Amino acid sequence: MTEATAANGANGANSAPPRKKILINAFDMSTVGHLSPGQWKNPKDRSAEKRKLDYWVDLAKLLERGGINALFLADTYGGYDTYEGSLDNCIRRAAQWPVTDPTIPISAMAAVTKNLAFAITASTSFEPPFLLAKRFSTLDHITGGRFGWNIVTSWKKAAFKAIGLDTPIEHDERYAQADEYLRVLYKLWEGSWANDAITENKEEDEYIDPSKIRSIKHTGKYFNLETRHIVDPSPQRTPLLFQAGTSSAGSEFAANHAEAIFVSSHSPLVLRPKIDNIRKLAAEKGRDPQSVKFFATFTPILGRTDEEAHEKYAELKKYVSTIGGLVLVSGWTGIDLSKYPPDYDLSAKDATEDNRVRSLLDQFTVTSPDVPRWTPRVIAEKASIGGLGPVAIGSPTTVADELERWVKEADVDGFNVGYVTTPGSFEDVVDLLIPELRRRGIYPEQEEIEGLTAREKVYGKGQKGLRSDHTGSRYKYDVYDENLA
């Protein structure tokens, strides 16, 4: 997927264009039941060990061995209480409960890896930009620039109540607030310190030249601060910026800020118009539309043969929690699925709560050959393994063919690959799928990713900082003028 690969293999006017290389992120969450609730009952699953550091260290070593691009960690700030109007089944089924902080294990994982990047989810709704800027600059330093941020806005009532607010922020206003939040961060990360602020001048007893650290004075609708950034520039300055959400407001935000976008759909044909729209919006803002990279959720169930993979799938189905899956989807969409008969045809009009994940709710307005009807019975089956994303069952050849189909039909650039059991699902990706993708020439070889930052792994060696066409570049120290901001 790296843009540097575009120049490879151009040996004449008649040569075929090189196939786009894809990147794969391992998709996990610091919780027992991520997208396949119930598998904690499976003796092959280690999900219940995520509160021990050994789980994360072992996983990082495995992903490093396989040349996985990044460990992408989801997060949430409250439980799912839409199903039956109660949190009880969320807790009982371990449907993303309990959830620990994803930032804590990163230092340990970085210490045992050299190339694996880390992308964590954090919300713009709950903490001042200065605190997040300090923590993320620290993580970018400690990982040697192998750090990314999945930007989300928060919508759960339970999460807002936990911090003392009764009502979530309205959907579109959340993105307006997030836009200002990001611009404050750019001022801190990009505009506060000169590259040569650290002088290490022993003769003058000067480690840092204070005249080369600008004080940021921001007065806006949502945030006010006056400070110098307290952390010196990290290898990337601004972490690689992921974003999730393809609603109208989310797409506008993504076109401005996102370098990589996490998308989810049951069909590439359903997803393609959303991707085309965001690329179009990015182009209208002066960005190269192909510089916005899309990662689709994807859950493979791999075997050495198709038959072996289907045997694994049959075994995995013994442990699913269909109620756990319904709890998750009810929470994401605002539709209490406990209220409907198993074969009732659902649509977005059945949502009874605001502030939900509109891009997931929108799925209920669109069917496809893969999902001709949305009913509680269909949702229970799909959500209990892999969430609502696609599940591919088969040999490395079969699954690789499916990945290539998504790249072609949806115009995605990579995948957030989920697990059913961990680490087993990830072991199969590393040992079975990655070798097949490399055999096809569509996955980076180990030597291609050695020593790169998270952003360089996406854009090519040398692109540690924001691209010049990214809105954050307006805030770089040498060009930023606060009087004009």
UniProtKB/TrEMBL annotation:
Signal sequence range: none
Alphabetic keyword roster: Monooxygenase, Oxidoreductase
Listed GO MF terms: monooxygenase activity; oxidoreductase activity, acting on paired donors, with incorporation or reduction of molecular oxygen
Presence of keyword Oxidoreductase: yes
Record bears the keyword Oxidoreductase: yes
Domain (Luciferase-like) ranges: 40-407
NCBIfam families per record: FMN_nitrolo (TIGR03860)
Family, similarity comment: Belongs to the NtaA/SnaA/DszA monooxygenase family.
Name of the molecule in the record: Nitrilotriacetate monooxygenase component A/pristinamycin IIA synthase subunit A
